[in-house]
Amino acid sequence: MDFDTIAAISTPMGEGAIAIVRLSGEAAILIADRLFKGVNGKTLAEQGSHTIHYGHILDPKTGDVVEEVMVSVMKGPKTFTKEDVVEINCHGGLVSVNRVLQLVLSHGARLAEPGEFTKRAFLNGRIDLSQAEAVIDLIRAKTDRAMNVALGQMEGRLSRLIRRLRQEILEILAQIEVNIDYPEYDDVEEMTHSLLLPKAAYVHEEIKKLLQTSQQGKILREGLSTVIVGRPNVGKSSLLNSLVQENKAIVTDVPGTTRDVIEEYVNVRGVPLRLLDTAGIRETEDIVERIGVERSRQVLKEADLILLVLNYSDQLTKEDENLFEAVKGMDTIVIINKTDLPQQIDLERVHELAKEHRIVTTSLLQDRGVDELEEAIASLFFSGSVEAKDATYVSNSRHIALLNQSLQAIEEAIAGAQMGTPIDIVQIDLTRTWNLLGEIIGESVQDDLINQLFSQFCLGK
Ligand code: GDP
Ligand code: ZN
């Protein structure tokens, strides 16, 4: 395909000492050569592909040195966009990187639209749509773990799996065609039905598995909703504060964060947590007392993780026991706080009540035990509920919707085959499944959908 040459600052604004101006397109090297003067006197066009060169950017009008730079030259098609790509690494901060960008733009390049580099990679066949979407997720990824998910997806795991399923369906469809071509067998319909059923069941199973991962994907992107419960004065607010202080709070742009339920996002060793802020916590303080064990169980069920706080220097009360009852079967970590004070609590009873739940002792006042708590949170979610990072996660709502539709289509095909529906009807459902899966990897999408997706990108990606 033929595109003009685009350019943008491709490093986050104001972050880091190095800023990169990236160019992509047929004239990328030519434009860079109009501005770049290398120390060895050679032009960039004379250099080999995938090489990096030290020199200066000069303003051709005045001959002034604008910036000291390292310039990478990458010739297509072995680049992210499959086009010629030049990256100008600037050291002098925002002002000079902007001057370099302005020069590039006044010497033949056009300012890239948000997401346009990735869009080109897609249009030039370098990546498929689900990989492009993974880049969007990557840009938005709020935590390390979400970043890994996005990266894994970018490597094409999901795409490979979807391709395999489509291939499976194609084989079923081919089988049907073959059988239809031999109508001399009068039991051909029945035979075809029984042949396709196990294969269709396999596809059905795989789609279902993928959908099950979507819940985890959502958790990883939005944070595990974490509720801190405990009697008044045990140290819930202190716990929230120390988790927020020790871990960089994640700045979130998630809509719906209202004044009365403020949420704190923190990243605990790669586990994103959505903690209820004090307003919310005050509400849960006497939750059991207010609404009873059954109701509070319902409320707590919405949480992905519960931190149940007890007071080491106080005896267990009926309220504590009720809390244990309320969190039964949920992912819970029991925290025995105030260990700096004399012991009053019956530890044996706590172990009895806690059963399978992990117990951590802390003195939040003396800043002790928080590391162990963080370790417990991380191991709970990386060894248990949340699978190892090489799993395929589906975390994109468009993918989830398409997978749900695919699941429904394949279910209809299976039901049809089981009921002896005419084979051409079953064929329609199978083809529909194939098309829906194809949409996930961008093999049957309309142009406007593509544009809509790419316009969500940040500038320079
Ligand atoms: P909440 O009512 O459960 O939210 O409890 P707070 O976090 O507001 O704490 C209640 C009181 O206990 C405050 O005065 C805290 O400073 C104090 N506190 C919290 N953690 C500890 C601790 O580990 N040791 C001691 N001695 N006091 C603590
Ligand atoms: Zn409190």
TrEMBL record:
Binds 1 potassium ion per subunit. GTP binds at residues 233-238, 252-258, 277-280. Exhibits a very high intrinsic GTPase hydrolysis rate. Involved in the addition of a carboxymethylaminomethyl (cmnm) group at the wobble position (U34) of certain tRNAs, forming tRNA-cmnm(5)s(2)U34. It is found in: Cytoplasm. The keyword Nucleotide-binding applies. Homodimer. Heterotetramer of two MnmE and two MnmG subunits. The keyword GTP-binding applies. PROSITE patterns: G_TRME. The lineage of its organism: Bacteria, Bacillati, Bacillota, Bacilli, Bacillales. Mg(2+) binds at residues 237, 258. K(+) binds at residues 233, 252, 254, 257. It comes from the Bacteria. CDD domains: trmE (cd04164), TrmE_N (cd14858). Its main location: cytoplasm. Its cofactor is K(+). Residues 223-382 form the TrmE-type G domain. It is an enzyme of class 3 (hydrolase). Keywords: Cytoplasm, GTP-binding, Hydrolase, Magnesium, Metal-binding, Nucleotide-binding, Potassium, tRNA processing. (6S)-5-formyl-5,6,7,8-tetrahydrofolate binds at residues 22, 87, 126, 461. It comes from Neobacillus paridis. This is tRNA modification GTPase MnmE. Belongs to the TRAFAC class TrmE-Era-EngA-EngB-Septin-like GTPase superfamily. TrmE GTPase family.
